[in-house]
Every structure is written in structure tokens, then in C-alpha cells.
Design brief:
This protein is mainly alpha-helical and about 250 residues long. Helices cover about 60% and strands about 5% of the residues. It contains nine helices and two strands. It has a two-stranded antiparallel sheet with strand order 1-2. It holds the Pfam family zf-CCHC.
């Protein structure tokens, strides 16, 4: 249906209401004649949503993917922002800018870098590349994390078994001390090895007393002397562990 310009103007004026009607009443005079095109430009400049191209480009370049925004929604939003920002440029250039913005503003930097290096020609292709990289990363890193958790659990089990073994040894030493009527194993002497690691000594294997080893036992050294062996070293303490005496010369 082809309407004349006056008919278009009349129907437009009949449909005006609210602020648009007030604006038309204030800006026009009764005797002045407004054409339909002039009236439309006046209304668009006042109420139109069209923004400057520079503003659209600034919004496009500053756009990034929101925290909970899906990849599909992010791609659609990039295309929506690119359309008014590059209306004066060819469609191929607009598509290239949109794909670049999609990769640069994506939250997953590694996946976006992978997609950008593949140089996709369409937004759908870039979207598929990002998803593919995310799937591969999840599959590989997930196995690594599970393997790390297994190693931690194995180490924990080993540490627990070692602690139980030490408890069993300590319990056995206590029972042995009770039967032999000697000092309980709680009086274990701690010495330091050359590497700085503490070492525990239980009862002497010759006399059963705590605090020294068999080779340092006075009774054992006396026994060796009686048998004609040259003693290597004697304790500084006597038989009762109280009387001290100098060690014999080698």
C-alpha cells in the first residue's frame, strides 16, 4: 500500500502520545508546515535509540564474557555489538572483528588462545574450537588430579602403617621389660646419628639394661677380657649405672 506523504504524517500525528506528543507540540508552531521526513528526523533525534558509531565501537572493544555467561550467549552478544559498530565496513571485516573479540574476551584464556591460533573464519568454528580445547583439557587434567589424589592417599596409608608399626614395637618392648623386671622402654635414650636423625636404643642385648648397646656394656666387656679378647670400648658408667670410672686405654 503506497501512502502519500501527507497521509503518513497524519497517521503519525494520530498515533503520537505522551512525551512524543508534548515534544511535537512544543517544537512546532501552528502555522509552520512540517513534512513527514522532517518530523521523523526530529523525533528520531529526540527519542531514537541510535547511538554514535564511536560509542558502539567502544562498547564492542570493552566487551568481555561475564562470569556465568555461556559461550553461546557470549558469541551472540559479540555479534550483536559488532553489527552497529561496523555498519560502514564490509561483512567479512565485521566477522573478523567479532571472532577476534570473542577470543580476546573469553574467560578461558588457554582455550581462546588455541581457537585464535587456528584462525577460524566463522563464529561457529571459533566456538567449536574453544569447546574442543576445554574438553581435552578437562580429560587430561582430570586424570592428573585423580592420580595426584591417589598418590596422596597411598602416602597417607604408608605413614599410618609406619605409625602403627612403631606403636606395636613400643608395646612389645613394654611387655619385655615387665617380664625381665628392667627399666620400662619409656626411658629410651635418644642419640643423634651423623645425619642429624634421632635414633632410639632399647635394652642391652647382653645385660638387659636400658641406655647402652651391647658393645658398650660393662659386663660384656669384662666377659671379653676374661676370654682374652681386647675390649674395644667400655662404658663410662659402672654396673649399677651410677658409679663412674675412666674408660680403659686401647
Amino acid at each position: 500500500m503506497n501512502w502519500a506523504e501527507d497521509e503518513c504524517k497524519d497517521y503519525l500525528l494520530w498515533s503520537l502520545e505522551g512525551k512524543a506528543l508534548d515534544f511535537f507540540t512544543i517544537t512546532t508552531t501552528e502555522n509552520e508546515r512540517y513534512s513527514f521526513r522532517r518530523l521523523m528526523k526530529s523525533l528520531e533525534s529526540r527519542f531514537g535509540t541510535k547511538e554514535l558509531r564511536e560509542t558502539s565501537k567502544a562498547k564492542f572493544r570493552q566487551a568481555v564474557q561475564w562470569h556465568e555467561e555461556s559461550l553461546e550467549d557470549w558469541a551472540d552478544r559479540v555479534l550483536t555489538l559488532a553489527t552497529p559498530a561496523f555498519t560502514d565496513l564490509p561483512e567479512d571485516h565485521m566477522r573478523f572483528e567479532a571472532i577476534s573479540r570473542f577470543c580476546q574476551g573469553c574467560n578461558d584464556r588457554e582455550a581462546a588462545k588455541h581457537a585464535c591460533l587456528e584462525n577460524p573464519s566463522r563464529m561457529e568454528e571459533a566456538l567449536d574450537l574453544v569447546k574442543q580445547h576445554q574438553y581435552i583439557s578437562l580429560a587430561v587434567d582430570g586424570k592428573k588430579n585423580r592420580r595426584g589424589r591417589e598418590d596422596i592417599s597411598v602416602n597417607a596409608v604408608q605413614a599410618s602403617s609406619e605409625a602403627k608399626t612403631e606403636e606395636l614395637i613400643a608395646s612389645a618392648l613394654k611387655e619385655f621389660a615387665k617380664k625381665m623386671h628392667i627399666t620400662p622402654p619409656s626411658a629410651v635414650v635418644r642419640e643423634t646419628q651423623p645425619g642429624g636423625k634421632p635414633q632410639r636404643w632399647g635394652p642391652c642385648f647382653h645385660c638387659g639394661r636400658m641406655g647402652h648397646r651391647k658393645r658398650d656394656c660393662i659386663q660384656f666387656q669384662e666377659l671379653l677380657k676374661k676370654k682374652g679378647y681386647k675390649p674395644e670400648r667400655l662404658n663410662d658408667k659402672g654396673m649399677d649405672g651410677k658409679t663412674t670410672r675412666p674408660s680403659p686405654q686401647k
